[in-house]
Specification:
alpha+beta; 275 residues; Glutaredoxin; 51% helix; four-stranded mixed beta sheet
Length: 275
Amino acid sequence: MHILNFSRLFNFVANLSGLIKKATIIMLPVLVVGCKSTSLNNDFTYTASTSPLTDVLEAKERALATNKLLLVVLGAQWCHDSTGLADQFNTEQMQLILGAHYETIFVDVGTLNDKRRITELFDYPIYYATPTVMIVEPSTNTLLNRTSMTMWGHADSISLSAYVEYFSQFPALTKNQKQLLTTWSASAEEAQYNREMAGRLQNAYQKLGPLLAEDIKGNTPPSFIDLWKEVKGFRTALQKNLEKRAVLKLESHDKSDASPTPALRHYPPFSWEQH
Protein backbone atom coordinates (compact mmCIF):
# COMPACT_ATOMS: atom_id res chain seq x y z
CA MET A 1 0.00 0.00 0.00
CA HIS A 2 1.26 3.45 -0.93
CA ILE A 3 1.90 5.50 2.23
CA LEU A 4 3.89 8.42 0.91
CA ASN A 5 1.90 10.97 2.89
CA PHE A 6 2.58 9.09 6.12
CA SER A 7 6.30 9.07 5.39
CA ARG A 8 6.16 12.82 4.82
CA LEU A 9 4.33 13.23 8.09
CA PHE A 10 6.92 11.14 9.98
CA ASN A 11 9.71 13.30 8.51
CA PHE A 12 7.83 16.50 9.27
CA VAL A 13 7.33 15.51 12.90
CA ALA A 14 10.97 14.44 13.28
CA ASN A 15 12.24 17.75 11.91
CA LEU A 16 9.79 19.70 14.03
CA SER A 17 10.84 17.84 17.18
CA GLY A 18 14.42 18.94 16.57
CA LEU A 19 13.35 22.55 16.31
CA ILE A 20 11.33 22.26 19.51
CA LYS A 21 14.31 20.92 21.42
CA LYS A 22 16.42 23.86 20.27
CA ALA A 23 13.71 26.34 21.20
CA THR A 24 12.88 24.91 24.61
CA ILE A 25 14.59 26.61 27.53
CA ILE A 26 14.83 24.89 30.88
CA MET A 27 13.44 27.38 33.35
CA LEU A 28 12.47 27.62 37.01
CA PRO A 29 10.06 25.08 38.54
CA VAL A 30 6.91 27.01 37.71
CA LEU A 31 7.59 26.43 34.00
CA VAL A 32 8.65 22.83 34.49
CA VAL A 33 5.31 22.13 36.13
CA GLY A 34 3.22 23.91 33.54
CA CYS A 35 3.07 27.59 34.33
CA LYS A 36 -0.08 29.46 35.13
CA SER A 37 -1.61 31.16 32.14
CA THR A 38 -3.55 34.36 31.86
CA SER A 39 -7.20 33.63 31.15
CA LEU A 40 -8.19 33.45 27.51
CA ASN A 41 -11.17 35.28 26.12
CA ASN A 42 -11.86 33.01 23.17
CA ASP A 43 -13.81 29.98 22.05
CA PHE A 44 -11.08 27.52 22.98
CA THR A 45 -10.87 27.15 26.74
CA TYR A 46 -10.66 24.16 29.06
CA THR A 47 -13.85 24.30 31.09
CA ALA A 48 -14.92 21.73 33.65
CA SER A 49 -17.89 19.60 32.60
CA THR A 50 -20.08 17.21 34.55
CA SER A 51 -20.30 14.93 31.52
CA PRO A 52 -17.07 15.09 29.48
CA LEU A 53 -17.57 11.69 27.86
CA THR A 54 -21.04 12.67 26.69
CA ASP A 55 -19.64 15.94 25.38
CA VAL A 56 -17.11 14.04 23.25
CA LEU A 57 -19.74 11.60 21.97
CA GLU A 58 -22.00 14.50 20.99
CA ALA A 59 -19.08 16.19 19.22
CA LYS A 60 -18.48 12.94 17.35
CA GLU A 61 -22.10 12.92 16.17
CA ARG A 62 -21.75 16.51 14.95
CA ALA A 63 -18.59 15.52 13.08
CA LEU A 64 -20.45 12.67 11.39
CA ALA A 65 -23.36 14.92 10.47
CA THR A 66 -21.08 17.54 8.89
CA ASN A 67 -18.58 15.14 7.30
CA LYS A 68 -15.68 16.50 9.35
CA LEU A 69 -12.92 14.97 11.41
CA LEU A 70 -13.28 14.93 15.17
CA LEU A 71 -10.57 16.85 17.02
CA VAL A 72 -10.36 16.16 20.76
CA VAL A 73 -7.94 18.22 22.85
CA LEU A 74 -7.36 17.23 26.48
CA GLY A 75 -5.68 19.99 28.45
CA ALA A 76 -5.97 22.50 31.27
CA GLN A 77 -5.94 26.25 31.84
CA TRP A 78 -2.98 25.94 34.24
CA CYS A 79 -0.79 24.46 31.48
CA HIS A 80 1.05 26.93 29.25
CA ASP A 81 1.29 24.42 26.40
CA SER A 82 -2.47 23.85 26.55
CA THR A 83 -3.26 27.55 26.43
CA GLY A 84 -0.53 28.11 23.83
CA LEU A 85 -2.32 25.64 21.57
CA ALA A 86 -5.60 27.48 22.19
CA ASP A 87 -3.96 30.75 21.17
CA GLN A 88 -2.78 29.24 17.90
CA PHE A 89 -6.20 27.73 17.25
CA ASN A 90 -7.66 31.22 17.51
CA THR A 91 -5.50 32.64 14.73
CA GLU A 92 -7.20 33.42 11.45
CA GLN A 93 -5.19 30.75 9.61
CA MET A 94 -6.17 27.99 12.02
CA GLN A 95 -9.76 29.14 12.32
CA LEU A 96 -10.15 28.62 8.57
CA ILE A 97 -8.75 25.08 8.74
CA LEU A 98 -10.61 24.04 11.87
CA GLY A 99 -13.90 25.52 10.72
CA ALA A 100 -13.76 23.77 7.36
CA HIS A 101 -12.47 20.34 8.37
CA TYR A 102 -12.80 19.66 12.11
CA GLU A 103 -15.39 19.36 14.83
CA THR A 104 -13.26 20.50 17.77
CA ILE A 105 -13.86 19.88 21.44
CA PHE A 106 -11.67 20.85 24.39
CA VAL A 107 -11.73 18.56 27.43
CA ASP A 108 -10.58 19.93 30.77
CA VAL A 109 -8.45 17.39 32.67
CA GLY A 110 -8.59 19.49 35.84
CA THR A 111 -5.79 18.58 38.22
CA LEU A 112 -4.85 15.40 36.34
CA ASN A 113 -8.26 13.77 36.58
CA ASP A 114 -8.91 10.36 35.04
CA LYS A 115 -10.03 10.69 31.40
CA ARG A 116 -9.30 7.16 30.24
CA ARG A 117 -12.92 6.59 29.24
CA ILE A 118 -12.39 9.24 26.59
CA THR A 119 -8.95 8.21 25.31
CA GLU A 120 -9.92 4.54 25.26
CA LEU A 121 -12.77 5.33 22.84
CA PHE A 122 -10.03 5.81 20.27
CA ASP A 123 -7.82 2.93 21.36
CA TYR A 124 -5.37 5.18 23.20
CA PRO A 125 -4.49 4.21 26.78
CA ILE A 126 -4.40 7.57 28.59
CA TYR A 127 -3.34 11.16 28.15
CA TYR A 128 0.42 11.32 28.69
CA ALA A 129 0.74 15.09 28.43
CA THR A 130 -1.24 18.29 28.33
CA PRO A 131 -2.35 19.04 25.78
CA THR A 132 -3.12 15.71 24.16
CA VAL A 133 -4.34 16.19 20.60
CA MET A 134 -6.45 13.43 19.04
CA ILE A 135 -7.52 13.60 15.38
CA VAL A 136 -10.23 11.01 14.81
CA GLU A 137 -12.13 9.61 11.82
CA PRO A 138 -15.58 9.64 13.51
CA SER A 139 -17.16 6.88 11.43
CA THR A 140 -14.63 4.31 12.68
CA ASN A 141 -13.11 5.95 15.82
CA THR A 142 -9.73 5.65 14.06
CA LEU A 143 -7.00 7.78 15.64
CA LEU A 144 -5.37 9.31 12.57
CA ASN A 145 -2.43 11.03 14.28
CA ARG A 146 -1.39 8.07 16.43
CA THR A 147 2.21 8.33 15.21
CA SER A 148 2.72 12.03 15.98
CA MET A 149 1.03 12.88 19.27
CA THR A 150 4.14 13.32 21.42
CA MET A 151 5.01 16.65 19.82
CA TRP A 152 1.92 18.36 21.24
CA GLY A 153 3.32 18.19 24.76
CA HIS A 154 5.41 21.15 23.51
CA ALA A 155 2.50 22.91 21.81
CA ASP A 156 3.52 26.39 22.95
CA SER A 157 6.91 26.01 21.23
CA ILE A 158 5.47 25.08 17.83
CA SER A 159 5.22 27.75 15.15
CA LEU A 160 1.96 28.76 13.52
CA SER A 161 3.23 27.57 10.14
CA ALA A 162 3.83 24.10 11.62
CA TYR A 163 0.29 24.09 13.06
CA VAL A 164 -1.12 24.97 9.64
CA GLU A 165 0.93 22.29 7.87
CA TYR A 166 0.08 19.61 10.43
CA PHE A 167 -3.67 20.15 10.59
CA SER A 168 -3.94 20.55 6.82
CA GLN A 169 -2.57 17.06 6.17
CA PHE A 170 -5.22 14.89 7.80
CA PRO A 171 -8.29 16.13 5.87
CA ALA A 172 -6.31 15.35 2.69
CA LEU A 173 -5.75 11.68 3.54
CA THR A 174 -7.26 9.33 0.99
CA LYS A 175 -9.65 6.51 1.85
CA ASN A 176 -6.85 3.97 1.35
CA GLN A 177 -4.50 5.87 3.62
CA LYS A 178 -7.15 6.05 6.33
CA GLN A 179 -7.79 2.33 5.88
CA LEU A 180 -4.20 1.54 6.83
CA LEU A 181 -4.72 3.31 10.15
CA THR A 182 -8.15 1.75 10.58
CA THR A 183 -6.66 -1.75 10.48
CA TRP A 184 -3.99 -0.89 13.06
CA SER A 185 -4.32 -2.64 16.40
CA ALA A 186 -2.05 -3.44 19.30
CA SER A 187 -1.22 -7.06 19.99
CA ALA A 188 -2.97 -8.66 22.97
CA GLU A 189 0.29 -8.51 24.93
CA GLU A 190 0.86 -4.86 24.12
CA ALA A 191 -2.75 -3.93 24.88
CA GLN A 192 -2.48 -5.53 28.32
CA TYR A 193 0.84 -3.78 28.92
CA ASN A 194 -0.63 -0.42 27.88
CA ARG A 195 -3.54 -0.85 30.29
CA GLU A 196 -1.22 -1.73 33.15
CA MET A 197 1.09 1.20 32.49
CA ALA A 198 -1.87 3.57 32.08
CA GLY A 199 -3.23 2.41 35.43
CA ARG A 200 0.11 3.04 37.05
CA LEU A 201 0.33 6.49 35.49
CA GLN A 202 -3.18 7.40 36.62
CA ASN A 203 -2.26 6.37 40.17
CA ALA A 204 0.69 8.76 39.89
CA TYR A 205 -1.66 11.50 38.67
CA GLN A 206 -3.82 10.89 41.73
CA LYS A 207 -0.71 11.36 43.87
CA LEU A 208 0.18 14.60 42.10
CA GLY A 209 -3.33 16.04 41.74
CA PRO A 210 -3.74 17.51 45.24
CA LEU A 211 -0.19 18.87 45.14
CA LEU A 212 -0.86 20.46 41.76
CA ALA A 213 -4.02 22.08 43.14
CA GLU A 214 -1.94 23.71 45.88
CA ASP A 215 0.69 24.80 43.37
CA ILE A 216 -1.97 26.48 41.23
CA LYS A 217 -3.01 28.47 44.31
CA GLY A 218 0.60 29.59 44.75
CA ASN A 219 1.33 27.27 47.67
CA THR A 220 3.79 24.85 46.08
CA PRO A 221 4.34 21.85 48.41
CA PRO A 222 8.03 21.09 49.07
CA SER A 223 7.88 17.66 47.43
CA PHE A 224 5.90 18.70 44.38
CA ILE A 225 8.63 19.62 41.90
CA ASP A 226 10.65 16.45 42.42
CA LEU A 227 7.57 14.24 42.19
CA TRP A 228 6.41 16.06 39.07
CA LYS A 229 9.76 15.51 37.36
CA GLU A 230 9.73 11.85 38.36
CA VAL A 231 6.28 11.27 36.87
CA LYS A 232 7.12 13.34 33.80
CA GLY A 233 10.06 11.06 33.02
CA PHE A 234 7.78 8.03 33.26
CA ARG A 235 4.91 9.38 31.17
CA THR A 236 7.24 10.82 28.52
CA ALA A 237 9.05 7.51 28.09
CA LEU A 238 5.76 5.62 27.88
CA GLN A 239 4.36 7.86 25.17
CA LYS A 240 7.55 7.90 23.09
CA ASN A 241 7.76 4.11 23.14
CA LEU A 242 4.06 3.79 22.33
CA GLU A 243 4.47 6.11 19.36
CA LYS A 244 7.59 4.34 18.12
CA ARG A 245 5.83 0.99 18.13
CA ALA A 246 2.94 2.47 16.14
CA VAL A 247 5.29 4.06 13.59
CA LEU A 248 7.19 0.81 13.03
CA LYS A 249 4.03 -1.20 12.69
CA LEU A 250 2.54 1.14 10.11
CA GLU A 251 5.78 1.57 8.18
CA SER A 252 6.31 -2.20 8.03
CA HIS A 253 2.84 -2.90 6.69
CA ASP A 254 3.11 -5.52 3.94
CA LYS A 255 6.90 -5.52 4.19
CA SER A 256 8.89 -8.71 4.57
CA ASP A 257 11.88 -6.87 6.09
CA ALA A 258 9.96 -5.26 8.92
CA SER A 259 11.99 -3.76 11.75
CA PRO A 260 11.63 -5.50 15.11
CA THR A 261 9.12 -3.94 17.46
CA PRO A 262 10.72 -2.39 20.57
CA ALA A 263 10.48 -4.50 23.69
CA LEU A 264 7.79 -3.63 26.21
CA ARG A 265 9.85 -1.78 28.77
CA HIS A 266 9.27 -2.14 32.50
CA TYR A 267 10.03 0.60 35.00
CA PRO A 268 11.23 0.67 38.60
CA PRO A 269 8.89 1.70 41.42
CA PHE A 270 8.22 5.38 42.04
CA SER A 271 9.98 6.90 45.02
CA TRP A 272 6.79 6.90 47.11
CA GLU A 273 6.20 3.22 46.30
CA GLN A 274 9.49 2.20 47.91
CA HIS A 275 8.48 3.09 51.45
